[in-house]
Specification:
Length: 216
């Protein structure tokens, strides 16, 4: 029985995988965020997650958004069976144009960490249309996120540099993603109408794709 590790995105937790169904042939292990050292890079943080959760070689990593970036970094120093990214990026060349703006003008540094936890009203405009129930869930995940982690992660992802694509990597993204533009992403399976939270509201299509990938 192989292991599948689920890694969530920034401002979220593994409840984002609530609608994802994986076969009983796998041991599914959710990875929750741990507090970073402020000197951590994406690379060193990924290594700390491996040790903290005893992530085993030759496992499957599924990463959503920031979790996909972390999965790439894990796969760079540990042999894994598969890396599956959903609504994420695999190299820094795929990062959106506004990353350069925030690196040059890091206004997020001036915002107290707890303010990010109360920005649930931006969930719908940024992530796309969703039901009131789904918006509440995403708002709750944001509210319960660590302010320290949130501020660290924003800096770390903006300054992430990577041009290495691990073997056995599969990439799924949506053509309506307002966070990571699919036009900047190479070699991905595109889900029509998929927003940045399609792992939640397009789960039926994603489950079908995951089933096919895991059988390979």
């Amino acid at each position: 029985m192989s292991r599948i590790y689920l890694i969530a995105g920034l401002g979220a937790d593994t409840r984002v995988y609530n609608n994802i169904s994986l076969s009983d042939d796998h041991e599914v292990i959710p990875i929750d965020w741990i507090e970073p050292d402020l000197s951590d890079t994406i690379t060193t943080y990924a290594q700390r997650l491996v040790y903290h959760y005893n992530i085993k070689p030759n496992s499957v990593l599924i990463g959503n958004s920031l979790g996909g970036v972390i999965a790439v970094e894990i796969a760079k120093f540990m042999p894994v069976e598969k890396v599956i990214l959903v609504s994420s990026i695999k190299t820094s060349n795929e990062a959106p144009w506004y990353f350069k703006v925030f690196r040059a003008l890091p206004i997020y540094k001036l915002i107290p960490g707890k303010v990010f936890n109360s920005m649930g009203g931006l969930v719908k405009p940024v992530f796309g249309h969703m039901s009131a129930e789904d918006a509440w869930l995403f708002g709750d995940m944001l509210k319960k996120s660590s302010p320290v982690f949130m501020k660290w992660a924003m800096y770390a992802i903006l300054h992430w540099k990577n041009d290495v694509i691990p073997p056995n990597l599969y990439h799924i993204t949506g053509d309506k993603d307002l966070v990571f533009d699919h036009k900047r992403i190479n070699g991905a399976t595109i889900i029509k109408g998929g927003t940045h939270i399609m792992i939640f509201d397009k789960a039926k299509e994603i489950n079908k794709l995951l089933k096919g990938i895991l059988k390979k």
